[in-house]
Amino acid sequence: MKANSYIHGFITLSFFLIITSCAVKKYVPEDELLLNETYVDIKLDSLTDVKDVAALKAQLDLTISPQPNSTFLGMRPGLHYYYKVKRDSGGFIARFMNRKIGEKPVYLSDVEQEATKDLLRNRLENRGFFFSNITSKTIENEKQKEGSVTYQVSLPNPYRLKTYQVDNDSIPFYKVLENQLSDSPIKVGSRFDLSALTQERERIDNNLKSKGYYNFNSGFLIFQADTNQYDNRRFDLFLKLKKDVPTKAIKPYQIKAVKVYPYNVTSNDTVVIDSVHYADKDYIQESDFFRPDRLDPFILLEPGDLYNPTKSRATSRRLGSIGAYKFVNIEYKELQESNDSLNYLEASIYLSPLNKRAIRAELQAVTKSNDFTGPSLGLTFSNRNLFKGGEVLNIKATGTYEVQIAGNSDAGQTSTEFGLGADLIFPRMLAPINVDSDYFEYAIPKTKTSLSATILNRSQLYSLLTFSGSFGYTWQANRYVTHEFNPISINYVNLLNTSTEFEEILDENTFLQNSFEQQFISGLTYSFTYNELIDERKKALFYVNSTVDIAGNSISLLSKENEEGKNEFLGLEYAQYAKADVDFRFHYLLNKDSRIATRFFAGYGLPYGNSDVLPFSKQYFSGGAYSVRAFRTRSLGPGVYSPEDDDDRSFFDQSGNVRLEANVEYRFPIYSYFKGALFVDAGNVWTTAGSGLPGGEFSSNFYNEFGIGAGLGMRVDVQGFVIRFDLAAPWHDPSMPSGERWNFDIENPVFNFAIGYPF
């Protein structure tokens, strides 16, 4: 398919739902005007002291109804198709579009200005602005068949808090409530705000529940405001209990007993139940399912503790992280016994297990950004409770066959890969020294051991045999922060059956040749992740992932020098390097469905000691569906390097030990599951070893050597599963001769297909 056809088809598909060819004003009845705009204009009295006027205006704007018909790029597609069907009957497409996005017209006559002013006055009173003066103004434009309404609000000085205290009628609960006021966000001088009082009730309710008040709820609290003592817009605020609050609501509860059911399968009546008392808890289960000593560290509920919903939620979260359970349910039962100061609860923890053993088969059609495509088959056997302590064993075998269908002169190459690997995950920390489990309050670390072997055969080029193993830990410090530390990480790579063509590539590039020589890598890795992208309640969301990879230092103590002056361990020449990178992302939510997403990546690898360059598997490359999308994978850089013949790119040597990238993307909804995007990407890789490709070395002129591209995309987003199509064209190509690099080559776009968002 020609490039222009790609572009035309892609743009047509992306904007099919929003393009309309005629205005809607010809359909508007003679005696009506379309509602074009409604907004609030706030004016302050000369003595009014209000600092958050913009926030107040935004809240009032949300109060106004009805809202005008939605627009896109100045057009009203929903209204257009509604009129098209209702007035002209329309064809099949118009009727279909009306069912999907059609909107009934909103006219100026639909606005009930007096009712809206009453609603605005109510909202202002809830925020402390009593006796506000509100007027409205209508503007009509007969030529455009549109009208707008402005509500002018003159704000007086708000009522502000003079004292905040507990009403004496709240005895005998007086002292408990008084203790809650010391850390209240409601301070002297605060503006009267009904929503703040609602939040204060919830805060006190949560605090009391954490102190054992199991039957208390926020509805038992009321506020009374008294302005009679003042004539300068001040008020006293009193907190009190409602009348007839049940006695059990103002009495704390203590956990008397904890019962744990590690094998809660209600449908199985033949299960032999065995009860074991361990760590002051009763474990009731099949005698051989889950060891109590392995399960107990995940449970924060202890007999003798006061009821605390925070500990209850944390226990549920920790138990759910084991990986052996499908459901975690914690129930509390009020016991009849009590004393003058306490009531008692019995806590029951019901754990519904997943199937202990499972076999999963995956058949996929793999399409990669380097133009290799083909089927992939994977078989995984899992045991989710191997040693009766929640250990998870995964054994996976994979087979992939791919054909390169486009991209360069290597099209038609085949690639086969077979792999066998095993992971054993312990839901606890295995270490030579004892680590206090109380240090990991949010979640208990997991210990993961992995072994794998793969054989990759790239036709006409080489075969690559890889063995890898690791031992390390992963844990969540809180909701946003995750740490991963692998003190042992080993890779052995053996390049086999190299073809004459590939040998020529190695001979021509010393940098690439050296990167394949050191086949043994032994080191440690650490990764830190801070992820706010899971929290959609904020407008500004941050994500940071930083990784450190250090290899060769420990085994250098046991190495011997060979005849070539290189150190070896067990007869293998090993790599020494330090590598660090950071991936920073910032998303700004414009509304529920639209956002600006940005990303910045920087990475640097330093070979030293036994290594002149980084191993090939540890080098950076640029271009592709998750990088600079206007360039194919590994086709960008290093630096301003340009192959002698564009049709003879090898792609194997276009890598480096320095990488910089930046991306910005505007994401917006199109219709239903279909989302759109406009983006700009920039980046490149460089070498610092002095033996790379011509023009590939990092220099002070690096900012002029970025590959830059722009494009548009479509995503099919079904509940977080994203299929992504991106079409991008180079804007600045550093491989071109100086003076010819700036050229928006829209006639030669690059099409990317991928799973998931790029960042």
TrEMBL record:
Superkingdom in the source lineage: Bacteria
Subcellular location, principal: membrane
This protein's record includes keyword Signal: yes
Residue intervals of the Bacterial surface antigen (D15) domain: 385-746
Keywords per UniProt: Cell outer membrane, Membrane, Signal, Transmembrane
PROSITE patterns assigned to the protein according to its UniProt record, in alphabetical order: PROKAR_LIPOPROTEIN (PS51257)
Subcellular location, record wording: Membrane
InterPro entries membership: Bac_surfAg_D15, D15-like
Protein name per its UniProtKB record: Outer membrane protein assembly factor BamA
UniProt source species: Nonlabens ulvanivorans
